[in-house]
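User: I'm putting together notes for a lab meeting next week and I want to include a structural view of one of the chains we've been expressing. I don't have a solved structure, so I'd like a prediction I can at least talk through. The sequence is below, exactly as it appears in our construct file.
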Amino acid sequence: MNWKGLVVGLLAIAVSVITYLLTRRRELAWKRTEFLSEQAKYLEDDPVLTEVITILEERHPTIKVQDIFGNGGTLDEVKRAEYVQKFDKFLGFLWRLSYAHLTLKTISSAEVEAFGWYYWRIAQMPTLVDYCENFGFGDINLVTKKLRLDEEE
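Assistant: Thanks for the context. Below is the predicted structure for the 153-residue chain, given as structure tokens.
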């Protein structure tokens, strides 16, 4: 038996496998980067989400989160329902990121933290935290706690 040939062959196979795995890992990291960039652009470009973020950041001239999710807000029921729907779109976006992180484990903690400002803002509004918990967006609260994004800065 030719031991040298066998060792060289096994070494060549090992190097090929390692090279493939490292290349694949870089490709997947790039794909995740592209995905997260697309999601950030989506948040910036969608007018509904832009308005929701403006409300969430308390920069809207007339509407507050409390008006939508609290008791005794200034909005009539039709307007309130319209804004709840807009927030549902935004919360659905964050929920999908949360699900990818918590369940699928395809997005790392650091990658989710790229959207941490939004998680943190939600955590500062108890009525919105309660809404997330009770209307199918509970994973947002779990990510916030897991990443400790609910703490005051």
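A couple of points you could mention at the meeting. The CA atoms of residues 68 and 81 lie 8 Å apart. Residues 46-146 form one domain.

User: Perfect, that's what I needed.
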